[in-house]
Amino acid sequence: MASKVYQLRGKVAEIWRLAEKNGGAYYKQLMENNKQHVQNPPSVENCQHLAKQLFYTRLASIPGRYESLKKEVDFVKHLLKHRKELMIEDAGVAALFGLECFAWFCAGEIVGRGFTLTGYHV
């Protein structure tokens, strides 16, 4: 066990040296490639303006999202009315989707409790 910890420590040190050596160049390249997304001058007012734009753009997208939701609900209603025509593949996909939703719910509960399985902190 101690040898594995020593190996891991060596790997972390190696990665850290690599990040120190190439991190600045990577940052400069990243900023150069994405300079069209940088707001100049970088001020609090510009940031607040961008935040307002994002908020109201999201609000403006609600009617479209609501229409999409209505279409999905109508499709599910149609499937329930005609469930005798439902193919086993469709039922399997629906079951997997439900299982995935349940798994995300469980993961969220665990994260919400501070990554403990029982809810008690040790």
TrEMBL record:
Keyword terms: ATP synthesis, CF(0), Hydrogen ion transport, Ion transport, Membrane, Mitochondrion, Transport
Gene Ontology CC terms: mitochondrial membrane; proton-transporting ATP synthase complex
Signal peptide annotation: none
Compartments reported by the entry: Mitochondrion membrane
GO biological process, one term: proton transmembrane transport
One Pfam family linked to the record: ATP-synt_G
Domain of life (superkingdom): Eukaryota
Database matches in InterPro entries: ATP_synth_F0_gsu_mt
Family to which this protein belongs: Belongs to the ATPase g subunit family.
The protein's name: Mitochondrial ATP synthase subunit G protein
Organism whose genome encodes this protein: Penstemon smallii
